[in-house]
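In the previous chapter we treated chains in isolation. Here, by contrast, the input contains two separate entities that must be folded as one system, with a combined length of 557 residues.
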Amino acid sequence: MKRAWVANVALICMLPVVAIWASMADEPFIITLATKVAILALAGVGLNMALGQGGLVSLGHAAFFGIGGYAMGILASHAQSYTPLLEWPMLIEGSNSMPVIWLLALVSSGLAALVIGALSLRTNGVYFIMITLAFGQMFYYFSISWPAYGGEDGLAIYMRNGFPGLNTLVPLHFFGLAFAVLLVALALATLIGRSPFGLALNAARQSSERVETAGIRPYRLQLTVFVLSGMVTGLAGALFADLNRFVSPSMFSWQTSGEIMVFVILGGVARLCGPLAGAALFILLEQLLGGISDYWHIFLGALLLLIILFARGGVMGLIAGPGERAHV
Amino acid sequence: MSLLTLAHGSAFYGATQALFDVSLDIEQGEVLALMGRNGMGKSTTVKSICRMLPLASGELRFNGRDIRTLASHKVARLGVGLVPEGRRCFRTLSVRENLQATARPGDWSQNSVTDLFPRLGERLGQSAASLSGGEQQMLAIARALMTNPQLLILDEATEGLAPLVRQEIWAVVARLKQRTGLAIIVVDKSLKELSNIADRAVVLERGTSVWAGAMNDLDEQIVGRYLGV
């Protein structure tokens, strides 16, 4: 347990250390990479709540990531074009304020997760995987055929949205913001894991029947964690869109769902910092191997295969040992 | 009024009928032995009582309330606690977490169950997977008690355990009977121990209750014919 704690703290501290070093060395690109790691790790933390704690293998989390992204894109595009989002029955303006955008991202992705979860959690196993995948693809094709917000071309946002007290155009400020949100999500995941709700969820993952005979309905636990998971992934989507100042249907694609799952598996399913380790490794490989070959995903695939075969706890399992359990 | 009544229950696994006509009832504070050879429908009866398997026909009442159509978790909330067959603990959770995961408010708390099972008290931080078979069984019983049931069902609670551990489990059942008003249904094959603890017995044969009565009235003829001892 102590080893796991030290590994988690070291990994969490490493990211701001890299960003601060890059700022002092005047390497804004590396700060952007660190920000990308923090945001993708946040998406992974969201998925890990459902996958690691609830045992829910969702291949549709790109839906929430995309909803968060489009929440940002839609509000910001209306703000930059000075056109209202809605005129009737009430006037709703666009917004350049990150807290407002985050609120919309959380609410909209949470509502989508509630509907998707309520329907898909009536199944399990491969059917659950396929239904979540189908929902993700539904959102993908809907976004392609929605010309009001760019259709297949997506939406470009010219200015980064603002946050009170910070200049979000300064890379280190934006990194700090994304990192702070990641810390809050990690704290939430830890709290959930240690709460009676999290314990019952973990128990339901092992045997829903036994939990049911103890008076707890697993469906409610799983739906609750699925909604929380969707909200965290949605918030990551809003931040990712702000980082790139661009949203496109690819945020909804099944490849995005797969990538988020790869972060979690690479880093370690049900490990608190697994998604962070996975996202960092992914970005590192993308930068190192991407420069050598366009087909760097082949190496990623080989690495994933090795981890699945020989290190079931992922990178964090190798570092922290097999003893660390989810979010402790 | 009986705490639990199952009258003329029948149940199926798919197209295969497993229970044909099972009747039993239990009063508050009573220990009922549910007996029979392997495959005679004891665990199926337990599953039907806990609503893990639907009853095709018959009556099922708990505290006078018809529970035939209730979901399994609702039956548990009414006060039916189950210790399932095979020492089913949540293996990745610690002993403390196993106790907390499904706990409900009531007289039973972590302190009172560790008083009953001091060995669990010594291993609260230990993973359930690392416990011995006997300790896992104690944990399964403690976990069921933490749901604060009115009726506790022990399904083959001593099966596969070392003789000393079995004695410990039987001693705990005896203590529960003496100190609490808990009604207990014990599914087991240990005739000698059941004779010391149970007030009444129901014997099953091929999915049908063929004998019911006071434990003392269970004669050699019944034992020889239905229990194969």
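Residues 218-244 of chain A form the longest helix (27 residues). Chain A has a mean pLDDT of 94. Compare these points with the single-chain example from earlier in the chapter.
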